[in-house]
Design brief:
By secondary structure, this protein is an alpha/beta fold. The protein has helices at 10-22, 36-46, 76-83, 99-108, 139-150, 160-184, 195-208, 212-221, 225-237, 240-252; strands spanning 2-6, 28-32, 52-55, 64-69, 87-93, 113-119, 129-136, 154-157. It folds into two domains: 2-158, Rossmann fold (3-Layer(aba) Sandwich), CATH 3.40.50; 162-257. Helix 1 (10-22) crosses helix 5 and helix 6 crosses helix 7 (195-208). 33% of the residues are buried.
């Protein structure tokens, strides 16, 4: 397999590394990036093992079996058509937004295999869940998916619509709520922390310890922050009876895997009164 990864950032490197390790015959890998030094660094890292990797310029006219788009969300719709005509067999993306990526790949490569992938984790936390929209699967993309599974990732099929709607909650709304807590919080001594506040500060550290541009792209791509602001306003303006109703409504939104059971003695955060 001859693979070009467009975008030599964290996720592009993860994809190349995972596919290289999980395919029977390690592919030759090329990286290209608007930052040539990033492409060279990614190729150097991957070449430490048995994989043949190199950097190529963004205007390369080489052809590849597979092209993977690992670019920021706002760039997907322009980058896919810019490179798709250099693919002989398959187009794949790991951009994080699926409807625009699927549409762009179909328009630019109607006769190619096409699969959109969204690793639902930072590369440093791999393996994990990987959402898959198999728009036009085939033997090459099946090999890619098998490599991801062999690395311990749990791949599951979905639709572009279901994925993007889910991201409104698990990414845009979740991030907005965490950032809002951080903006509203005041310094508190460690001895005052409760289990809930400790968990929130831990999550806040995870969110704010990453690239803010990525989180801005997510907010732009998926609606969510406005509904979090509306919910906070409803809580702030609620009388006691209304608050209790909102509390029950929030508990009803828990996914099946979560437990809404709290203290049975009326205490907060599972503590006694």
């Amino acid at each position: 397999m001859n693979l070009l990864v467009v975008g030599a950032g964290e996720m592009g490197r993860w994809f190349a590394r995972t596919v290289a390790a999980g395919t029977p015959d390690p592919p030759t890998v090329a990286f290209t990036d608007t930052d040539p030094s990033a492409a060279r660094e990614a190729a150097s890292e991957l070449s430490v093992g048995e994989t043949d990797a190199r950097a190529v310029p963004t205007d390369t006219d080489e052809r590849f079996d597979v092209i993977c788009f690992a670019v920021p969300i706002p760039a997907v719709e322009s980058v896919v058509p810019a490179y798709a005509d250099r693919a002989d067999r398959a187009l794949v993306d790991v951009s994080g937004v699926m409807a625009p990526a699927v549409d762009a790949m179909e328009a630019a490569g109607p006769d190619l295999e096409r699969v959109s992938l969204h690793p639902l984790f930072a590369a440093a936390n791999a393996p994990g869940n990987v959402a898959v929209v198999a728009d036009a699967p085939g033997p090459v993309t099946d090999e890619v998916r098998a490599a991801l599974a062999d690395a311990g990732n749990d791949t599951f099929e979905t639709t572009a619509r279901e994925h993007d709607r889910s991201m409104e909650t698990v990414q845009a709304r979740a991030h907005a709520a965490v950032l809002a807590f951080g903006l509203a919080a005041e310094p508190v001594a460690d001895e005052f922390q409760t289990p809930v506040s400790e968990a929130l500060f831990d999550v806040l550290g995870t969110v704010t310890g990453n690239d803010p541009g990525v989180y801005a792209d997510i907010q732009d791509a998926f609606d969510g922050a406005g509904s979090v602001a509306d919910a906070a306003r409803r809580i702030a303006e609620a009388d006691r009876e209304t608050f209790e109703g909102l509390y029950r409504d929030a508990n009803a939104a828990l996914p099946p895997s979560a437990s809404g059971e709290g203290s049975e003695n009326g205490g907060a955060d599972g503590e006694g009164p």
